[in-house]
Amino acid sequence: MVDSQTIDKAVEALRSGKLVAIPTETVYGLGADASNAKAVQKIYELKGRPSNHPLIVHVQAPLPASIASSLQLERDWISILAPWTRHIPKTALILIKYFWPGPLTLVFERGKSVLACVTGGQETIAIRSPAHPLTQDILRAFGGGIAAPSANRYGRISPTTAADVRSEFPQNPELLILDGGPCEHGIESTILNVSEEGNPKLLRPGTITPSQIKTATGIEVVADHHQHSQSPRVSGSHQAHYAPYTPLYLYHEGDVNQQITEQSKKSSKKIALIVWHDCFDLYRKNFADLSAQLELSSVEKNPKQFGQILYRLLRDLDQKNFGAIFIPNPPLEESWDAVRDRLQRASFGSGPSSSNQVSS
Ligand code: TXA
Ligand code: MG
Q: Mean per-residue pLDDT for 118-127?
């Protein structure tokens, strides 16, 4: 049970234009009152994020007790969204009914009074209703929307615990960080663009997959072919993101022997080799000669479980000062898309000089 003091403190901080780190079921967010330009500006400053990168506005969900019927539920969602968007397509309402509150972000046409600093100056706005009970209590008590990107420094690994958030911003003791425990999914929300005619377009893969959406609602999600050339911008869509300081390599099982041998000659620093759980004994035997230089650990070959621990794993490995981290390439299946996407970007932006390469 959350104590009401915590909620009061968070609401007071939001009302006075301060930042509050909030837990969600995906990752922790760095929140500000979405209707206060000065407060929103602080998010960009603290994260070091360019001001043309739009934020997600987090909104409350209708209280289950207040919902008398499906029509009532629809009305409640429409009134919650009214301040933020001028058009809610039918498809969006269906998605909302199935997946909100939850790890799905929808991009709509923006409402007239939405601040340009929230949308990065675009004509669209990203909105989601997070499923974390503490953050829902805060949203209800606050009464407004909370603009929040993931609570990490720009381009770095998203935080999945309150302690991770603190370690991202150690110089900011005044930042209020709410502890809602470890995040349930561990990976950011799926983002769909519903602001244009036609089928929703996938802007960022997440734990909710297009097949799950199709099965639940019959709605076909399509790929977004304009993602890299046009608005809306998705900062997580830049090539380098979620990146550790230690060089991270994704390996194919056939090549890993050679890669590890080469790496062991390049540097005397220990190497972290992550393998699928089922292959652990095989690899241990394989690399018996290099055992002093290798730290072997295993992960389950399961996209949901891997997603839950991915950022934790990267953060923990990054602390240990390895010369390199090797992680297996995830299978080329839709259920792995979100994990594969984050790993590829983490790998691209990794390494000690990555702050120069990171573009988002
Ligand atoms: O799970 C999540 O989505 C987490 C939690 C805290 O809610 N938030 C998150 O925020 O991942 P952030 O800012 O790290 O990533 C949100 C992405 C960004 O890449 C941003 O560019 C994109 O959403 N976005 C925001 N507004 C948009 C818009 N109007 N059109 C397209 N993309 C948008
Ligand atoms: Mg982020």
A: 96
Q: Which ligand is nearest to the CA of 231?
A: 1
Q: How many CB atoms lie within 10 A of CB 266?
A: 11
Q: How far apart are CA 157 and CA 94, in angstroms?
A: 32
- Cα(191) to centroid of ligand 2, in Å? 12
Q: Is 105 in the pocket of ligand 1 (CB under 6 A)?
A: yes
User: Would residue 155 be called left, alpha or beta, if left means φ above 0 and alpha means ψ between -120 and 50 degrees?
Assistant: left
**Sequence-distant (≥ 6) Cβ neighbours of residue 133 within 8 angstroms:** 2, 180
Q: In terms of C-beta density within 10 A (0-12 exposed, 13-18 middle, 19 or more buried), how is residue 204 classed?
A: buried
pLDDT tens sequence across 45-58: 999 998 889 999 99
Contact 308, 181 (CB under 8 A): no
pTM of the model: 0.94
pLDDT at 355 over 50: no
Q: Are 242 and 345 in contact (CB under 8 A)?
A: yes
Sign of CA dihedral 125, 126, 129, 132: negative
Q: Which of 100, 155, 85, 88 is nearest to 131 (CA)?
A: 100
Q: Within 13 A of 296's CA, how many CA atoms are on the CB side? A: 19
The residue behind tokens 């046009």 is 230
350: its two tokens: 């990794």
Distance 54 CA to ligand 1 centre (A): 7
Q: Are 273 and 260 contacting, i.e. CB atoms less than 8 angstroms apart?
A: yes
Q: Is the CB of 165 under 6 A from ligand 1?
A: no
pLDDT tens-digit series, residues 185-212: 999 999 999 999 899 999 999 999 999 9
